[in-house]
Amino acid sequence: MDGQILCVGDLNPDLVVPYGEMKRALRQDLPGPTAQLLPGGGMGNTVTALGRMGLRPLILGMVGNDSTGDMIAADLQKNGVDTRFLRRQQAPAMAVVSVIEEDGEKVFFQWFPPGGQDKAFTPADFSEPVLERCSLLHLNGMVVQDGGPSARAVTEFCELAAARGIPVSIDLNLRCAQYPLTPERRALLGRVLAVASHILGSGAEEWCTLTPGRTKEQAARRWATAQNTVVCRDGAQPVLLIDRLHESRHAPPPVEVVSRNGAGDMFDAGYLARLAAGGTPREAVFHGLAVAAHAISHRQPRSVPGPAELAHLLACIDP
Ligand SMILES: Nc1ncnc2c1ncn2[C@@H]1O[C@H](COP(=O)(O)OP(=O)(O)O)[C@@H](O)[C@H]1O
Ligand SMILES: [Mg+2]
């Protein structure tokens, strides 16, 4: 495939608070860990993984015009991401505070500095030169966050890309607790899904929120057409692939899970990388499963498999 994968979505600083580890240290009267500021965001995970796999993806996203924005931009570049369309927002940017409990569970909080604002796109962000470079457009449902101008600009861009013959893929990532599914948001998401070639999503909480259906499979089938691919994931359960109305199920390779954080984002990176290399949706699902399995069995965030590790994980997947 000529051109680059263009990822549109969330980038933010993550302030990681090792609360559980600190409690343990205090009990033993030992020096505790410190909190750490890391580059985060769901699309940050996907685009960084694509960069690490050598695909030179483009990111179209927003970071703060401050030291956290500098840190994220530098990290993207270091990992092989093309940042020519990275935007700096003028208002202070939102951060995520990620508290890790004693059992390793993570709890997330959004934090806005005084005067802070959520990211907002304008039609000017989606100019012609952006499309010219792009062979595949990937976004997540978070950027269609309401019925407002930013979500409308993203929706119209997807429609334009599809009209130009550029495949659009979306991972639902609805995050309805933060971004309620208003009728206006639902209508815009419906427009994106109508032009998307690849629709990915996870669990009943995403599929059944979006579509009436008793099970996630029933809800996912609602979006399947003779032209598109629907990928319905759910943690350790087999993935339901509906490729041009043909259904199959694929179980993840067995691994020891050390951190489930960002599993879906890493699946997306594997899936998109294989599509970009000319793979079928079925092969792309296998790669998604392998890259996700690698990521969740490593403590280091956004860890991607090397060729040998990838081959081993792929061999563990029952075709
Ligand atoms: N507990 C688990 N055991 C094995 N594989 C898992 C587990 N959780 C996630 N995965 C792998 O990661 C993929 C993405 O997980 P998913 O639940 O869809 O993530 P998210 O909720 O982050 O979107 C799954 O399809 C699977 O391949
Ligand atoms: Mg997800």
What's the CATH H-level superfamily name?
Ribokinase
Q: What's the CATH architecture name?
A: 3-Layer(aba) Sandwich
User: What is CATH's topology name?
Assistant: UDP-N-acetylmuramoyl-L-alanine:D-glutamate ligase
Question: How many DSSP H or I helices?
Answer: 11
Average pLDDT figure: 95
User: Using DSSP, what is the number of strands?
Assistant: 14
Strand order of the largest sheet: 4-1-9-10-11-12-13-14
Q: Give the names of the bound compounds.
A: adenosine-5'-diphosphate, magnesium ion
Q: What count of domains describes the coordinates?
A: 1
| Rg on CA atoms, Å | 19 Å
Overall geometric form: globular
User: What order do the helices and strands follow?
Assistant: EEHEHEEHEEEHEHEHEHHEEEHHH
Organism: Neobittarella massiliensis (ex Bilen et al. 2018)
Protein name: Carbohydrate kinase family protein
GO molecular function: ATP binding; kinase activity
Family: Belongs to the carbohydrate kinase PfkB family.
Structure, described:
With 319 residues, the chain is of the alpha/beta class. The protein has a single domain (4-11, 41-92, 117-315), classed as UDP-N-acetylmuramoyl-L-alanine:D-glutamate ligase, CATH 3.40.1190.20. It has eleven helices and 14 strands. The chain has helices at 19-27, 42-52, 67-78, 128-132, 149-163, 183-195, 203-210, 216-221, 263-276, 281-296, 307-315; strands at residues 4-8, 12-17, 36-40, 58-60, 62-64, 87-89, 95-100, 106-111, 134-140, 168-171, 198-202, 229-233, 239-243, 246-250. It is globular, with a radius of gyration of 19 Å. The mean pLDDT is 95. Bound molecules: adenosine-5'-diphosphate and magnesium ion. Residues 202, 233-236, 239, 252, 257, 260, 263-264, 267, 289, 292, 296 line the site of adenosine-5'-diphosphate (ADP). Adenosine-5'-diphosphate binds next to helix 9 and helix 10.
